[in-house]
Amino acid sequence: MTTADTTPPLRIGLLGTGPWARNTQAPALAAHPGVELSGVWGRRAEAADALATAHRTRAYTGEEGIDALLEASDAVAFALPPDVQAPLAVRAAEAGCHLLMDKPVATTVAGARAVAEAAEKASVASVVFCTLRFAPETSAWIAEQAAVDGWFTARAQWLGSLYAAGSASEYADSPWRREKGGLWDVGPHALSVLIPVLGDVEHLTAAAGPADTTHLILRHTSGASSTVTLGLSAPPGAAGVEIELRGERGTASIPGWAGAETAFRGAVDALAEAVRTGVPHACDARFGLHLTELLAAAEEQAQAAG
User: Fold this and answer.
1) Helix then strand then coil, % of the chain, to nearest 5
2) CA–CA separation, 39 vs 48, rounded Å?
3) Is 124 helix (H, G, I), strand (E, B) or coil?
4) What is the mean pLDDT of each run of 10 residues along the chain (306 residues)?
5) In terms of Cα–Cα distance, which of 34, 10, 4, 79 is closest to 275?
6) Phi, psi of 108 (to 5 degrees)
7) How far apart are CA 19 and CA 113, in angstroms?
8) What's the rounded Cα separation, in Å, for the pair 271 and 268?
9) How many CB atoms lie within 10 A of CB 241?
10) Helix, strand, or coil here: 273?
11) CA–CA gap between residue 152 and residue 54 (Å, rounded)
12) What is the DSSP string of 56-80?
């Protein structure tokens, strides 16, 4: 005889109604068996109404709507530009809500630090959604490689064609992404893989490449080095993701993964576990702050060199 699980669902509200919210977060939250999608907030009432109706929840809008959604939620997920996300994450933490944030947490160190400090002060759990840390295939690979000693160097390339001629991606309309480029958009993904395997970054060199491309050379605390190429403007034939490790036991290449929605469900599970146990997840707001520190240093170097 088994005992039925009487744990109440985690009430998670969604802030944002753009493509990322529509395509990934809302479907993942609405379908998750351990979650109640407690509402959707958007700046445009019609967008909030449409997304909330599609997933059978309540729509919120306006400043008063933010407070109402926080009151109705145990946690909030963010599908907003990073520098809109950060102050709202502080507000949510102060209201006692756990945080499921998108990367980067903010594009300023001060903004990211404010989130980390607010989460710590309020004793709320936090997770920053770096896709490869939560997709089942890649998270297992990262854990496997982190358990292996003797890595010598690594190479990571994350090149998108978002801004290539003829691209029709709706994500290309994002003003913050166009302004900050691949360094800030896909840089967190690459760093979130390399750091747990090779150790923290103790020295960083950055240089600008064509269009929005940025090249990084990293030295890690393990003694290994890595190179990283990031961009969103590659020709379609040049786009792709590769992360390869080389060391005493040979080479290892990161596998493919099923998609963002599956990975996001993994991040929801990670947040629920952190809430249940009180044990911070490795990819929490403090880690999100560290990513912002590294990306800000890289941006400053690349701009100075250019």
Assistant:
1) 45, 25, 30
2) 9
3) coil
4) 68 97 97 98 97 98 97 98 98 98 98 98 98 98 97 98 86 92 98 98 97 97 98 95 97 95 97 98 98 98 86
5) 10
6) -125, 145
7) 27
8) 5
9) 16
10) helix
11) 49
12) T--EE-HHHHHHHHHHT-SEEEE-S
The answer for residues whose C-beta is within 8 angstroms of residue 34's C-beta and 6 or more apart is 7, 9, 10, 268, 269, 272
Q: What CA–CA distance (Å, rounded) separates 89 from 79?
A: 11
CA atoms of 103 and 185, how far apart (whole Å): 7
Angle between helical axes of 285-305 and 109-122 (0-180°, round to 10): 170
Interhelix angle 285-305/187-198, nearest 10 degrees: 110
H-helix segments, the chain: 19-20, 26-31, 45-54, 62-71, 82-94, 109-122, 131-134, 136-146, 175-185, 187-198, 260-277, 285-305
pLDDT tens digits along 230-272: 999 999 999 999 999 999 999 999 999 998 999 999 999 999 9
Structure tokens at 187: 């840089």
For residue 210, what are its two tokens? 């064509």
pLDDT, one tens digit per residue, over 30-39 is: 999 999 999 9
